[in-house]
Amino acid sequence: AGRYRQAVSRASTTAAKALFPRALRGVSDPMSGFFAIRRDAVARGAEDGGLRPLGYKILLELAVRCRPRGVAEVPFAFGERHAGESKSTLREGMRFLRHLAQLRAGGDARLRLLAFALIGASGFLPNLAALWLLTGPAGMHYVPAEILANQAGLLWNFVLVDTLLHHRHRAERPRGARLTGFALLGNADLIARIPLTMLLVSTFGLSPLPATALSLVAVFFLRFLLVDKLVYRR
What predicted TM-score, i.e. pTM, was given to this entire model? Predict the structure, then answer.
């Protein structure tokens, strides 16, 4: 094969596999036009947001959106072109980049972000209510109280996210694994939130309740990205 075709293929494959390491695991050449896929996998992808191919990279579209449960490959040689014309034009290259961006963002990413925001906002209530009880009537210091209160908001958010937002992806992982991953990520942001809360309390004179509320807002977008990509593997 010509060096140009090989270079374009390798660069495209590297970019795609870097963006979708899980979806393209076991697929050595997602740019290939020679493949077969089970109908039930295509039907599953069509139900879950639909298929929106852009350009000629149909295998890439199917692998990312349909997530086939198993991949098997039959090797073949990348030979010289003897007929037809190459589709490796600048226009197709730009279309390929748009396709990658479209796949990475997800067709319903904005809706998921809005839903996640509403669920996260509702989770502020049990979190802040627990914090008020622990720092007020219970007389606990606000740092350990924030750690405990975070569990109330975290459990509330998990039930809603798992039931309403990602119900179509629950079968991919057991409930215990989903809850564990959600809890680990939900508590990991305490590493950023507690120092921020302490800064707001000690430097800016805020009470623990509004300081905690501000820290929850500050880490919201990071939590959305981590939950979306790692727990439910979107």
Answer: 0.50
